[in-house]
Predict the 3D structure of the following.
Amino acid sequence: MWYFAWILGVSMAVLLAIVNTMICDAQACSAEQEKDRS
């Protein structure tokens, strides 16, 4: 059953990386829009 935990861990790490990238991109986009407004 170790493979189940391994696959679960890898999939959670990939999911975390994707969410982190999306949050970073959203923050950069928000900062760029604020800069354009002023």
Helices lie at 2-37. Residues 10 and 16 are 10 Å apart (CA to CA). The radius of gyration is 17 Å.
